[in-house]
Amino acid sequence: MPASRLHRVAVLVLEGAKPLDVGIPAQVFTTRASMPYEVRVCGAAPGLVTGGDGLAYHVTHGLEALAWADIVFVPGYRLPDRDDPPRAVLDALIAAHERGARLAAISTGAFALAATGLLDGRRATTHWHYARALAAKHPQVRVDENVLFVDEGSVLTSAGAASGIDLCLHILRGDIGVSASNHAARRLVAAPYRSGGQAQYVPRSVPEPLGERFAATREWALHRLGEPLTLESLARHAGVSPRTFSRRFAEDTGYTPMQWVMRARVDVARELLERSQRGIEQIAADVGLGTGANLRLHFQHILGTTPTEYRRTFTRGE
């Protein structure tokens, strides 16, 4: 990973802040030797902030932390559809964004970002229970209630609390690489990666065992990426028809089965580029992409870069 870049993270605690939403970015990005992040928890002013669910927070920093941060997390808070955060908070978020900071909302924190106007004309998501309220209150925001998170570059939003972990891991992947992100996921005992396009919840009409079976098939496929994988072989493992598998898989993950397999192969290639000295041709063969030319093609399509440039960017500097 890039060794010299220190990322400064501010977690903005608003009145009624939800405990899990506050704790997720604070824990994922907590300052430690292996992580190039410094975290400051802040509020509209230093001192006690009344939270939700019977908890309160004593924050050391006020809004000056937003002027310091490279990334500002806005955790969810209670009754977001009623009142907007104080004007000073919105102005500080806008100022942080204007100087280049990324703003990332967890759950109903999206309402605070929407109140700044920075989500106008952009895709965004929030907890499914509040998605319609967000669309009604901020009609210029393109609300997508069927995804775990949305990355619009300088502004990012996520659904309920658990998807905040997915968003944080997504940010880690972009900042410091797949290997470090996977290590963080293991520390959290979390899934290494769930795509932003994955559905927030499975429709109630789908029997739960089928969802478990599909998860087992994905795990099975991850251990066989170097082998030929087809829609038929995946469906056969799941014990359903290819048509049913394809439809349900897309509902669950946001990708067709073969798109998911391709992205999984590229992910493994990314980690091999970061952690090993294997050549491009060998890595391509190891992950089931056949040739270096094929690996380069898919890297460019999915990541917008080349394997060589990716390795140069994310090779550890130790």
Descriptive report:
The chain is α/β, with parallel strands linked by helices. It contains 14 helices and ten strands. A six-stranded mixed β-sheet has the order 2-1-5-6-10-9, with helices on both faces. Strand 5, helix 3 and strand 6 form a beta-alpha-beta unit. Helix 8 crosses helix 9 and helix 9 crosses helix 10. The relative contact order is 0.10.
Short précis:
The protein is of the alpha/beta class.
Q: Can you give the mean pLDDT? A: 87
- The portion of residues forming beta strands comes to 5-15%
Number of DSSP E strands: 10
Low-confidence stretches: 196-208
What structural class should be given to the helix and strand makeup?
Answer: alpha/beta
Number of helices: 14
List keywords for this structure.
6-stranded mixed β-sheet; alpha/beta
Describe the secondary-structure layout:
Elements: E1 7-12, H1 19-28, E2 37-42, E3 47-50, E4 56-59, H2 64-68, E5 71-74, H3 87-98, E6 102-105, H4 109-116, E7 123-124, H5 131-137, E8 142-143, E9 149-151, E10 155-158, H6 161-176, H7 178-188, H8 208-222, H9 231-238, H10 242-253, H11 257-275, H12 280-286, H13 292-303, H14 307-314
